[in-house]
Amino acid sequence: MSLAFLRWGVLILVCLIAPLATAAEAKKLRRPKAKGAKLVHVQRGERLQHAAAAAFKRMHESARTEGVSLRVTSGYRSRQEQRWLYERYRKGLGPQAARPGRSNHQRGLAVDLVVGDVSTTTYEWLASNACRFGFRRTVASEPWHWEYRPRTTRAPAKGQDCLGRDTTPDLQDTPLAKKDPS
Q: Where do the D-alanyl-D-alanine carboxypeptidase-like core domain residues begin and end (predicted)?
């Protein structure tokens, strides 16, 4: 009789330990988060993953040369920061926030910018140019949220912007075209 109890005890112990081992293996297979990647300061103490930061800095400089200011309000977030934002959102105390573990802010690949709404010069510049730097808008309800996704963000065709609009100057507007032919 004690042998039967011993067998049941071993079986129960195996049933309790097996899920822990499986969870540990699953954790090893998950995609690495930003904590393993190098984070780089981009602006106002905000950080992004190294490649995203380099692309953002190039985009920021390009915007600046065209008279547009790109100001960062949020970059990388720790799991604790994301959890806090998500809990505030769930309680109706803050803006929409992704569940912890589902935000590219935690990977250092998302940046929130001061853009106003979709009719501002800043937003218009981003919509027209961000794809050239690997950034795109991924949340329809958040015009300020841009993610670095260079592998899946298409560069514009030659002579076009990210919205597919022609960027070549109109020949009729050039000084040579306005010259009197006589």
A: 46-150
